[in-house]
């Protein structure tokens, strides 16, 4: 196995790095597996021990392996801090095709969803069910109307930017000027542009642990190293965050402070102010993902955006997709004008055109006189469904759960410890599709439920399935 092919013109330590990376990616070296000692590797490769040490140091810095006192050198079991080799570029990432790598558990979930079995409950999909998406009446629009629309520049359709600015003013009492807003094809395009323009391969980013960002392949594709920071009931832990900032030279902090995905937690105002102050001290920008902002069950003054607290240091991402459905694909990014202009230029160079069609529809929805009433009705229905799911979980002593203050996700922790593969399989067998915690973190003790998809009709089926799954997993735990 440990046979090194030395290429002319390629440093030996780089060849060692690439050999070990190949073994890891091909599954010849598994997560947690120990590598031979430095002395043995030097003998296998017929090189000086210092060359092996150099290669291993690089792999440690890139996050692929770990050195543990008394345990030797092992393959990293998680994805935190994983980057790419120094020689890797964007083209090579595409060749590796990280976007095509689908977790086996995800494949099983998607297969069950496609079967459209009435006995399967899809509480995994991150969208509202059709019956909750508000409906709007639009005036007759001709194709010529779209072609003649001239109010779109590089930042997007101006009336829509003005409507978003007005909504923010009404909701939170601060101004996001239309000039500071870049309309994007969903929140993820905003994130993609930030990775391409403001960060570079090898940069370190701190995120919450757990976080939906952990599952996104765009970070690995861009060579960005993610470092997870633990959360408490008030949000991201600032002591741990400062430690990560110092250790890994973090270039950006990315948070989802309101109704966080997946935990549903809401960052306290005290923690928000302290987070802003900490990042100001280190001169590190904050990326605030606020896509669930309008789905609040609590007064708006409890969830003031970080952007309001620090307009210059916070990049703010919003979206209508969580209300109008993902097919609308309308998001926005509020940043300093100079930053937005650079992002818009980058989008043009990448030939990512922004269709006028969804922008017009989004503007018509936002400016509809019934929009506030329909959103209010949606929030009431969501809160009712959330409370019903929470109360059921709260009755089951095996689960630890907190009622979220908005959004449509609830996070339930299994009190009896780590869930095994056979436990996750029980959810699939029973046809209750949830998002397991290992999608969002290295932890394997929790589930994310999209409670918006549990209505009065299917609640009894949900209760039956959840109680049966809990009973089966609890019996297995007691046998251990």
Automatic annotation (TrEMBL):
Signal peptide: none annotated. Keywords: Aminotransferase, DNA-binding, Pyridoxal phosphate, Transcription, Transcription regulation, Transferase. Residues 10-78 form the HTH gntR-type domain. This is HTH gntR-type domain-containing protein. Pfam families: Aminotran_1_2 (PF00155), GntR (PF00392). It comes from the Bacteria. Coiled coil: none annotated. CDD domains: AAT_like, WHTH_GntR. In the C-terminal section; belongs to the class-I pyridoxal-phosphate-dependent aminotransferase family.
């Amino acid at each position: 196995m440990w046979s090194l092919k030395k290429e002319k013109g390629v440093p030996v330590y780089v060849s060692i790095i690439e050999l070990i990376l190949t073994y890891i990616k091909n599954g010849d070296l598994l997560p947690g597996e120990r590598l031979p000692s430095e002395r043995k590797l030097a003998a296998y490769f017929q090189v000086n021990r210092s060359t092996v040490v150099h290669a291993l140091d690089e792999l440690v810095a890139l996050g692929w392996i770990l050195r543990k006192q008394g345990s030797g050198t092992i393959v990293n079991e998680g994805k935190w801090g994983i980057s790419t080799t120094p020689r890797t570029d964007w083209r090579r990432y595409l060749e590796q095709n990280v976007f095509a790598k689908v977790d086996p558990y995800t494949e099983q979930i998607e297969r069950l969803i496609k079967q459209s079995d009435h006995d399967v409950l899809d509480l995994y999909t991150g969208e509202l069910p059709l019956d909750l998406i508000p409906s709007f009446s639009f005036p007759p629009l001709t194709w010529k109307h779209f072609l003649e629309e001239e109010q779109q520049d590089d930042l997007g359709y101006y009336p829509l930017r003005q409507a978003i600015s007005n909504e923010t003013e009404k909701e939170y009492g601060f101004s996001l000027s239309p000039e500071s807003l870049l309309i994007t094809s969903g929140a993820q395009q905003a994130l993609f542009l930030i990775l391409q323009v403001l960060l570079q391969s090898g940069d370190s980013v701190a995120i919450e642990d757990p976080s939906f960002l952990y599952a996104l392949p765009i970070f690995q594709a861009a060579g960005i190293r993610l470092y997870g920071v633990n959360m408490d009931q008030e949000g991201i832990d600032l002591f741990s965050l400062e430690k990560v900032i110092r250790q890994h030279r973090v270039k950006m902090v990315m948070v989802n402070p309101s109704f966080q995905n997946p935990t549903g937690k809401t960052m306290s105002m005290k923690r928000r102010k302290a987070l802003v102050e900490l990042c100001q001290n280190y001169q590190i920008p904050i990326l605030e993902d606020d896509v669930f902002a309008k789905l609040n069950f609590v007064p708006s003054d409890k969830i003031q955006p970080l952007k309001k607290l620090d307009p210059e240091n916070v990049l703010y991402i919003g979206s209508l997709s969580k209300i109008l459905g993902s097919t609308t694909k309308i998001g926005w990014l509020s940043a300093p004008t100079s930053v937005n202009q650079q992002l818009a230029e980058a989008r043009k160079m990448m030939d990512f055109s922004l269709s006028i069609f969804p922008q017009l529809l989004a503007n018509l929805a936002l400016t509809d006189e019934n929009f506030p009433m329909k959103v209010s009705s949606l929030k009431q229905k969501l809160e009712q469904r959330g409370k019903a799911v929470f109360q059921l979980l709260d009755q089951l002593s095996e689960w630890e759960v907190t009622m979220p203050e908005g959004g449509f996700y609830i996070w339930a922790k299994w009190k009896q410890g780590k869930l095994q593969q056979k436990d996750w399989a029980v959810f699939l067998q029973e046809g209750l599709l949830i998002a397991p915690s290992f999608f969002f973190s290295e932890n394997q003790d929790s589930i994310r439920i999209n409670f918006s998809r549990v209505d009065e009709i299917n609640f009894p089926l949900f209760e039956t399935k959840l109680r049966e799954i809990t009973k089966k997993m609890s019996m297995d735990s007691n046998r251990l």
